[in-house]
């Protein structure tokens, strides 16, 4: 999936400071994740961007989903929990990655010391061990940064939910304020010129046509194209147009 690939690339190519305290604090965060799994019967996934490693802790939810026995854990060499993704309804998995992309861009506007105050929550459908879709509440926190401001650790929690709404909400855990992700302003993600270029791409225009219409060089058009792909974290123009429409940067 292109969104996953680009988000994966962005997270793993961050520049991390060589800080011993990161390693020293890892065991503390692993203990926190394991306690979430035990006390909430949740699946807790602690992902380390610096080493591309995830630590999974299983509560009772994992048994019902047929993933693992409760009170067990394992380590995988990836920041993506593919085994869990395989149980998600395909539409919800796509939506999950898109909304996490939006949340990641939202956090870029937040001072690094306050990023852990916010988390994204939404419901999804996942197959249980009998092949029936269950409603699951997913929460993601970016809980630790290094001194450069790079995201170091994320924590994902999965619990069963009685809420059938699939809306995504950002919660500020310090004051209880809820922000609907759909209402977050992403207009500044692309420049006005980049939006013009992408609108023409969406209409099927080639680079030479865009250059003529906007009275700019083809090299400038190509530079805008590359910037658009990087900002939207996609690998091609088709995906760029689709994601831009989802973010309401283009008219559908």
UniProtKB/TrEMBL annotation:
Chain segments annotated as transmembrane: none
Keywords of this entry: DNA-binding, Transcription, Transcription regulation
Keyword Transferase set for record: no
Q: Start and end of every HTH luxR-type domain?
A: 183-248
Cite the GO molecular-function annotations of the record: DNA binding
**PROSITE patterns according to UniProt:** HTH_LUXR_1 (PS00622), HTH_LUXR_2 (PS50043)
What's any GO biological process attached to this entry? regulation of DNA-templated transcription
Q: Does the keyword Chaperone apply?
A: no
Q: Which InterPro entries match?
A: Sig_transdc_resp-reg_C-effctor (IPR016032), Tscrpt_reg_LuxR_C (IPR000792), WH-like_DNA-bd_sf (IPR036388)
Q: Which PANTHER family match?
A: DNA-BINDING TRANSCRIPTIONAL ACTIVATOR DEVR_DOSR
What is this protein identified as? HTH luxR-type domain-containing protein
